[in-house]
Design goal:
Keywords: Heme, Iron, Metal-binding, Monooxygenase, Oxidoreductase. The protein has 245 residues and is mainly alpha-helical. The protein is built from 13 helices and 2 strands, in the order αββαααααααααααα.
Length: 245
């Protein structure tokens, strides 16, 4: 039985030192196990060199062609997304204005944990965590749960074609599956966005971004907002749509 990856990397670190490189097919991966080296790598000018993400298949179809804050390469677009997150989503004033939502979510979570402490149905707790305690549209809830699960699985380093592009010549079932999942998630987020757009009196993160869209429609496009919704999961919950399903 193969050891977990982190233990295998620990063995390599003990043998080769606190920093070493590996070849994942055509990609080079650098492994750092020293805190001081990590700090050195992500401070000064080195952080710019190491800040970009690899252009993987899942980020292409689920991350709107590598344009979300978690998948975009370092550059003007990523810096603008960071500015939006810092000023419009995660600023002190913005977080304070949505304090009641976080308090309500913590209260709900504690109630669910207390109620389900002896339950083995983790899937049910997960679904309720996104859809509230009273789920009317269970089919939609299950669909969303599966989407989140599939994206999590596809986002892990399990697509050999990301590292051996030549394999694409032999067909790519994985790519078709990721495309379908990305399309389904986009449709879900678009429905959520449209519901928030119709809620003129809503006071949510999404409605705030939609108000900015009216001022700068080209910059705050639907794709940009949906990418931010996906990257900051709490934004999805701030719209009451999910609790009304």
């Amino acid at each position: 039985m193969k050891p977990p990856v982190h233990r295998l990397l620990q063995r390599f670190s003990e043998k080769y030192g606190p920093i070493f490189s590996l070849r994942y097919g055509s990609s080079r991966v650098v492994v750092i196990t020293s805190l001081s080296l990590v700090q050195e790598s992500f401070t000064g000018t080195n952080d710019v060199i190491l800040s970009s993400r690899p252009l993987q298949l899942t980020a292409k179809y689920v991350g709107y062609n590598h344009t979300t804050v978690g998948t975009a390469p370092y550059g003007d677009h990523w810096r603008n997304l960071r500015r939006i997150c810092s000023l419009e989503i995660l600023s002190s004033n913005r977080l304070t204005s949505f304090l009641y939502i976080r308090k309500d979510e913590i209260r709900r979570m504690l109630k669910r944990l207390s109620r389900d402490a002896h339950s083995d149905d983790d899937g049910s707790r997960f679904t309720h965590g996104y859809y509230g305690d009273d789920v009317d549209n269970k089919e939609e809830a299950e669909r969303f749960k599966k989407l989140v699960h599939d994206i999590s699985m596809y986002s892990s380093a399990n697509n050999s074609r990301d590292y051996l592009p030549v394999l694409k010549l032999f067909g790519n079932k994985f790519e078709k599956e990721v495309m379908a999942t990305g399309k389904s998630m986009d449709e879900f987020l678009q429905r959520l966005l449209d519901d928030c757009r119709r809620d003129k009196d809503g006071n949510t993160m999404v409605t705030h971004l939609l108000s900015l869209q009216q001022q700068e429609p080209d910059y705050y496009s639907d794709i940009t907002i949906k990418g931010l919704m996906m990257s900051t999961r709490s934004a999805a919950k701030t719209c009451e749509y999910l609790d009304q399903l």
